[in-house]
């Protein structure tokens, strides 16, 4: 994780320095023998050459571009580093034609090639953005992190980004250290698409950028997570800045104000995006937010007339996607979700009426914490029996209409069994119209309608005779 305190000391004032012409970008290009290895049916040399050419072609017309390559002339020579295109060059075509002709051959002298790049900036008193592309780790006993750290301490003005192309787990520690020391980012590229994305982002974050004033670090279970961080003006969809963390601290440039952050994990597709709202940035100091994808919990309590009640539930994120839920069975229910802001919709079972669903809005769940939410539904009982004039249970159809809204709420069939006749209905308090229609043919055309009032916690009974 980057040293926020150190950067705060260096950049005690948040500023933007206007320039007529952007500072140069100097690419250090991997031409070691391993670039003949294949990814998705193409050599890494072909992929890197095509992607770098596209990246260079997309740069501004007034952008000066230099090129250093290593490993392209001699197999075992750790000093095989050549400055192929001077940093004062402004021809994209020249860079692309030179890259196309490079023949991967030798070793991977990362420390030495970076030293040569930094020395050129020292000698010309030029500030620049250095972008190192490598498909392997140091193979010449150098330490690129030490090289970059010493150059920064000397006061040489540069930003270093490193793009690791097809590296394995455990091979990136020194590269991340060097990018961190060089005030840049490490980008991990496993294929052509990721290489293109990494180079595009690296060339967009140059030495000319104002130093970021809001740092974000993303973790899950205590380990860094590669994530996409986007900042929006609070309460809007207006994006102000966005960065990818690549498992490290990322710095956003945000004018003083309040922002909503949407953070999406890129390493685990099952991890839902997190929204963190109303974060404050300042022009004269660095703000910081660590965002954890560790789960938080919702303790859902569903009641009816102050007693536990069986309900179904849905937890819905800010994009309207259902990300969790459970049936309560009348007991408190813990639902684990990623940190974020959710709506929780509960639907009571068995009871009928117009108040059988409730939505808890904007429930904020924080990592490692439990938030309690509770809702108490209200009902009463209506017990309706149907008999013939000679006191025999009568099979009939029952429909119940809410008088206030003119909406049919529920209904049923009484049959002729004492277990279902009288028939019990659990209803929200209110005034209902009840319609009874016997099933037997002898009662064709006959029906009865009456009104009942259901009160909370009370039972209303009605026996209807035909």
Automatic annotation (TrEMBL):
Residues 24-203 form the VWFA domain. Gene3D superfamilies: von Willebrand factor, type A domain (3.40.50.410). It comes from the Bacteria. Pfam families: VWA_2 (PF13519). This is VWFA domain-containing protein.
């Amino acid at each position: 994780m980057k040293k926020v305190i150190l950067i705060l000391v260096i950049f005690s004032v948040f500023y933007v320095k206007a320039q007529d012409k952007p500072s140069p970008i100097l690419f250090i290009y991997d031409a070691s023998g391993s670039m003949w290895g294949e990814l998705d049916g193409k050599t890494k040399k072909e992929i890197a050459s095509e992607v770098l050419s596209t990246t260079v072609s997309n740069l501004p017309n007034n952008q000066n571009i230099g090129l250093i390559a290593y490993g392209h002339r001699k197999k075992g020579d750790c000093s095989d580093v050549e400055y192929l295109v001077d940093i004062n060059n402004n021809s994209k075509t020249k860079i692309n034609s030179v890259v196309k002709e490079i023949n991967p051959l030798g070793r991977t002298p990362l420390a030495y090639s970076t030293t040569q790049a930094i020395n050129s900036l020292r000698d010309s008193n030029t500030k620049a953005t250095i972008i190192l592309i490598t498909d392997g780790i140091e193979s010449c006993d150098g330490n690129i992190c030490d090289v970059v750290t010493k150059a920064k301490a000397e006061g040489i003005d540069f930003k270093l980004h490193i793009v690791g192309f097809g590296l394995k787990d455990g091979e990136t520690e020194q590269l991340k250290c060097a990018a961190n020391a060089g005030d840049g980012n490490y980008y991990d590229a496993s294929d052509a698409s990721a290489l293109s994305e990494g180079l595009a982002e690296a060339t967009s974050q140059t030495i000319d950028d104002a130093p970021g004033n809001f740092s974000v670090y993303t973790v899950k279970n205590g380990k860094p997570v590669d994530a996409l961080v986007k900042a929006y003006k609070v309460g809007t969809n207006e994006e102000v800045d966005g960065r990818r963390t690549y498992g490290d601290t990322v710095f956003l440039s945000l004018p003083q104000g309040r922002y909503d952050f949407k953070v999406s994990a890129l390493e685990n597709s099952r991890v839902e995006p997190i929204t963190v709202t109303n974060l404050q940035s300042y022009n004269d100091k660095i703000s910081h937010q660590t965002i954890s994808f560790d789960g938080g919990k919702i303790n859902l309590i569903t009641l009816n007339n102050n007693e536990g009640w069986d309900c179904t539930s849905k937890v819905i994120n800010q994009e309207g996607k259902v990300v969790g839920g459970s049936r309560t069975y009348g007991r408190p229910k813990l639902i684990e979700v990623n940190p974020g802001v959710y709506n929780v919709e509960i639907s009571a079972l068995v009871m009928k009426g117009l108040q059988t669903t409730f939505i808890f809005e904007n429930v904020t769940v924080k990592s490692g914490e439990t938030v309690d939410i509770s809702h108490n539904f209200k009902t009463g009982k209506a017990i309706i029996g149907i008999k013939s004039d000679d006191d025999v249970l009568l099979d009939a159809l029952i429909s119940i209409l809410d008088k206030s809204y003119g909406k049919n709420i529920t209904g049923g069939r009484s049959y002729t069994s004492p277990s279902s006749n009288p028939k019990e209905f659990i209803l929200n308090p209110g005034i209902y119209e009840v319609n009874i229609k016997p099933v037997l043919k002898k009662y064709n055309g006959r029906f009865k309608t009456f009104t009942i009032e259901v009160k909370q916690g009370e039972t209303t009974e009605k026996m209807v005779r035909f």
